[in-house]
Amino acid sequence: MRKIAIVGAGQSGLQLGLGLLDKGYDITILSNKTPDEIRQGKVMSSQCMFHTALQTERDLGLNFWEEHCPGVEGISFALVDPASGERAFKWSARLERYAQSVDQRVKMPYWLEEFQRRGGKFVLQDVGLNELEHLADEYELVLLAAGKGEVVKEFVRDAERSTFDKPQRALALTYVNGMKPISPYSRVGFNIIPGVGEYFCFPALTVNGPCDIMVFEGIPNGPMDCWAEVKTPEEHLNKSLEILKEHLPWEYERCQDVTLTDNGGYLAGRFPPTVRKPVMTLASGKKIFGMADALVVNDPLTGQGSNNAAKCSKVYFDAILAHGNQAFTQDWMESTFEKYWSYAEKVVSWTNSLLVPPQPHVVELLGAASQNHNLASQIVNNFDDPRNFSPWWFDENAAKELLETDQVSQVA
Question: So what's the pLDDT on residue 410?
Fold first, then answer.
């Protein structure tokens, strides 16, 4: 029975640990929070997961909330005209298969308890370099799946793959009850405000039931970069509503009766999108293998974080099973990460393209989608697999050819 330790009890680490545990591996998961501390803490992310990522959970029998979590049935886009403050265009399209968002304060504690029920070992511990040395002595493979903390910074930043070295957005989340639903189907309501930032919202399941999540992405030093002085839950909700009232009155209209879901239902911060090299070499020479957010930190603008984590977990799961009893060498670690990067690279490129002023052909594509349902459907369904945006999202000539030939096909 192979012994593997996973540092971090989030989407990727727990999903991988539960999957390997069911295959007979000896798995230990380490985290610095108990399940109850996670449940009673603040929200950690917005985590809208699309079909393929959800399927990786279903395949492992981990989709415990599927019947209770509100479905996200589509996505809408609106571009605000800076001169008038009105929408230059708006459109929406259905997802072929629904998305869902389960608050990590709901999912992760239950998964961690399920991991222990199935025979996995849980260790409550802060893990630094000394602890990693001890783990590397005891286990055949040590994976670092924590996206935050000082130890993550020990993975070397990959300068060739990291476009930015500073935060590109001031970020805020607000979990609310009482938002007016959108008809005729639920959706991610995505709004782009040039020079200000982006706002999107969608239904979710939180610690006290169904809710909506408001996500604010403010351009640094712009009018939506306004969270530094917000100290209390009430102030956070009021600031959220102030932003909507000033910049997105049609969204403000949906929020006349909203309240925070709970005193932990808000978050603000910022971080630079970063790609790191996958192997950490300890002072002893032993190797630690990173995964998911420890290595590829994507801005939440495109809602891909938990999707990336689930898909990374699947790649690593398959690679570990296929590796049998062979040693987990640095070459194996690097080749396994490259399998994941073959997917994540396009996700990062697509997200990064929306963090800078959009190319004219991208604006043209988004505008054309308001007149072309097939194009709208393809854009919306590509959130499930952003590799399908290539080449036309990234290449002006490919976009022009797509629009001229009008050969946009529905996603299968």
Answer: 38
